[in-house]
Amino acid sequence: MKTIGYLEGTDPDLLSKLVLEGHGTLPLGNGWDGHGKYINHLTKEDDVDAVVGYLHKIFPPEGSAEGPRDVLFACRTHKIPVYLIVPKEKHESARSYLRQMAEGVTLVDPSEVYEAITK
Fold first, then answer.
1. What's the alpha-carbon Rg for the chain, to the nearest Å?
2. Beta strand pairing status for 82-85 and 50-54?
3. Read out DSSP for 69-93?
4. Which of 61, 27, 49, 43 has its CA nearest to residue 118?
5. Which of 11, 65, 85, 87 is most solvent-facing, going by the fewest CB within 10 Å?
6. What's residue 63's pLDDT?
7. Spatial contact of 80 and 48, defined as CB atoms under 8 Å apart
8. What is the Cα–Cα distance from 87 to 46, expressed in whole angstroms?
């Protein structure tokens, strides 16, 4: 079974379904919301198979020296796939917004999150 790291705001029904089907979950924080283990402190030993969360959770507050690439540094380093929840009709604009940092990031419609992260 997989261990899924999740950012604050991730659908609790999705998380419950994952747990009931034998998957592990790990709350992750983005560095300013205080939600769980800081995402950039993920290591191979955490054995996280994927990270899921809403697009806005990877964007630091205005005026921060960090950017989305910084927030997802550990995921890129350890090749942990990231699934960002964005309504399907907004995928094109989200890809444009993410630009070059989209490597390792999959945009997924809210209705398709479970299927995407468990395949």
1. 13
2. parallel
3. HHHTHHHHHTT--EEEE--GGGHHH
4. 49
5. 65
6. 78
7. yes
8. 29
Q: What is the pTM of this model?
A: 0.92
Measure the CA–CA gap between 90 and 94, rounded to whole angstroms: 6
Q: Residue type at 29?
A: G
CA angle, residues 75, 117, 5, in degrees to nearest 5: 45
Contact (CB, 8 A) for 88 and 118: no
pLDDT of residue 4: 98
Using CA atoms, how far residue 40 sits from 30, 72, 78, 95, 99, in Å, is 8, 7, 10, 22, 21
What integer pLDDT is reported at residue 97 of this predicted model?
A: 82
Residue 116: both structure tokens together: 């995407």
